Amino acid sequence: MTPDVVVSGSLRNRLALILTGGAALLAVVLFIVVRVLAAQVAQQGQDNILKASMSSVLDTAAIRDGRVTLDFPYSSLSMLNTEADDRVFYAIYEDNTLLSGYDWLTSPRDVAPENTIFKNTTLKGEVLRVASGARTLIGSNGPRNVFVSVAQTQDALSNTLNAISRNVAFLGLGFFAMSSALAIWAASTTSRQMRRLTSSVTRRGPQDLSRFTKPVPSEMAPLVASLNTFMLRLDHSLTQSEEFIAEAAHRIRTPLATVRSHAEATLQRVDRDENRTSLQAMVRAIDESSRAAGQLLDHAMVTFRAGNLEMVQVDLADLLHELVQSMTPVAEMKDITMTMELERPATLQGDAILLQNALRNLIDNALKYAPAETGVIIKASNSPTLSVSIYDDGPGFAVDEIETLSGRFVRGKDMGNTIGSGLGLTIAQEVIVAHNGSMALTNREEGGACVTLSF
Amino acid sequence: MRYIIFLIALWLPVSSFAQGWEDQQSFGEPNQAQLRILSSTDTSFFAPIIEDFLASSPDISVEYLVTGTADIDRLYRAAPDEFDVVISSAMDLQLKLVNDGFSAPVMNIDHPEWAQWNNSLFAFTSEPAAIVLNRQAFKQIHVPSSRQDLIQLMRDHPDHFQGRVGTYDVRQSGLGYLFATQDARATETYWRLTEVMGRVGARLYCCSGQMINDLRTGKLIIAYNVLGSYAKAQAENSDDLIIILPSEFPTTMMRTILVSAAAPAPQHANNFVRHLLKLQSIGDPLTFPLPPLSRSQDFQNLRTINLDPALMTYLDQMKRAAFIREWEDAIVQEK
Ligand SMILES: Nc1ncnc2c1ncn2[C@@H]1O[C@H](COP(=O)(O)OP(=O)(O)O)[C@@H](O)[C@H]1O
Ligand SMILES: [Mg+2]
């Protein structure tokens, strides 16, 4: 079914792609946001400790004997001890004079008392975080400004950040995996609705052109609605063509029958031989036309019905029995005896009208091409497969024509004046194909034709 | 004014020591790649370690240079490219060297976290500061068991102790300064003890070795804050000496080693540190005659000085000057 449909992409794949893509994007955003927040929080933590350390140094500033001294406690530097053994630097200035500490670590002079300035600097490529503060002491000869800076490397901080990054990366991956699973699940549930509709369309019988009544999601409602309208139109036009065929058959056959009965009646009344001959020719021609019309209509009907078989339980034996009975008069006219060899059971699921039509055409052929006073055998067997064979004692098929005889309007070359339209085998062939069977044309060893339908 | 005088006084003895080494020895075949070790530890303790190291790396020779802790800091800061390895008992000076970027890291070493700092400084001994006394002099009076006890004893018998008490001169000895500052940080008793020692005319020493010598000759009858390990080595030869770990808490120092950031032979230096730490963890007294690391329950209040940036607190110029002024006020009793 799919091969003759032009396919472009897949709704499910597209949906899954959009959802997983979104999840991936969200995971990356999550990672970045958490990483940035963590960096801020970690930096805040280091800043707090640096500030505490710096303040505890600054707090000890006092003027003793006219000089500024700072007797800071052991804890000032001890609190800067980290897991990663970060290195620690400090500098204590009175105005521009270094009182103690590292001379390369200069304190900013614009820091207001009670204020802390944080900044980064580098020492031989390593980042240092510096906290600086100031205090003004009032001495006997005026105010004196003390500046303290405390700096620390960021090893512990980056260790923490790396650990957080690792965890957040795992979190992001987990989030992505879960969202992807969810996306795939969502996509397949959505497409399951489509598949359900598809299968309910495929599963329908050929004759079933009713509306779809099962509930569908709102997005699919327009599709189902137009499908329903389409079905309605299809049903309508089908009914119309069926009616047309029946009407046509009726219209042609009825006047022909009338003409024939008039001709027969006239035949009773005329005595002159030449008139009788021409009237008989007329009847024959009418028969031929009515038969041809019948076969044409039969063919049309077969073609139409083959697309949507009306499957019922058919008993082939019963069907053949009835057919033989109804055709006995024709056979008797040629003194042909019809023998039936019917194995039972011979039932199958099939379209009774079509099967009857096909078999009638085959028996008709046998009666037509077999010479008078011969026998026709009608055989039904149920093993190895169900099959029907019709044997006659006629001339059989011309070997070089066998392949082509079942074509439309194809007739044998040496048929002389036997009337026929060339549609009989065509009808039989189309019916058997519609029933997933096959038709074989063979010649009997002792002479005569054999047509076998195997189901 | 006084402050500056103290600073000058501080520098004079240090610079006069710079000329010669306390000891200088070479190990291994000469004319080979040389590993220069600057150390404060007596050669006798390190010779077995170096010999064991040379047995596994015979293609190098070792020059072992011994001097005082303060000297080491000064010499090494002046010429870090002349030495490969620095070993010192002054933990504070060593930590500051690392902090100031003078050391190279030795990575992936299996060593307890508390015994290393910044992947660069590795502690390899645990040595308590002891009170060592001459047995002869304590026939009549009882042997003190704590600092408090010692104070009381010196107060009760000032004449017995007069001029016969020894301790580190914290101005000269980095280790002495470390012990003093850690003691002072821990207890007020330290200042009272210092004052009492000053009153009985305490003699001041640069190094443990000399103090122990004077104890054995009887010049001293008691020494405070002597390295237990050195005293023990001496006590084994004679039963003159009694080693006491103050019962309140013995201040415990860890000897540390670092590789110079400017080491001429960095790979050998690296190997030496690994070898030393391996010998330490094996702890065989034949190859490692020093007291190995311990954080054990040997002493209830064992107070090990932590490798912590706070060690730099008392190295601060202002704090050092203030501490030494206070210490001198207590111990140098010029009448
Ligand atoms: N029983 C038969 N014996 C001999 N030839 C046959 C037989 N049935 C069919 N044929 C040949 O097959 C041709 C096609 O048959 P068919 O399609 O029934 O057309 P028609 O019978 O109208 O000619 C016939 O013209 C005839 O030559
Ligand atoms: Mg026919």
UniProtKB/TrEMBL annotation, chain A:
Annotated Histidine kinase domain residues: 247-455
Gene3D superfamilies: 1.10.287.130, Histidine kinase-like ATPase, C-terminal domain
Substrates-to-products reaction catalysed: ATP + protein L-histidine = ADP + protein N-phospho-L-histidine
The name this protein goes by in its record: histidine kinase
GO molecular function, one term: phosphorelay sensor kinase activity
SMART domains membership: HATPase_c, HisKA
Compartmental location: Membrane
GO cellular component: plasma membrane
Transmembrane segments: 168-187
The protein's Enzyme Commission number: 2.7.13.3
Keyword Membrane (UniProt): yes
Stretches assigned to the HAMP domain: 188-239
Keyword Transferase annotated: yes
Keyword annotations from UniProtKB, A to Z: Kinase, Membrane, Phosphoprotein, Transferase, Transmembrane, Transmembrane helix, Two-component regulatory system
UniProtKB/TrEMBL annotation, chain B:
Superkingdom in the source lineage: Bacteria
GO cellular component, as recorded: outer membrane-bounded periplasmic space
Signal peptide limits: 1-18
Record keyword Zinc-finger present: no
Alphabetic keyword roster: Signal
Protein name as catalogued: ABC transporter substrate-binding protein
Organism encoding this protein: Nereida ignava
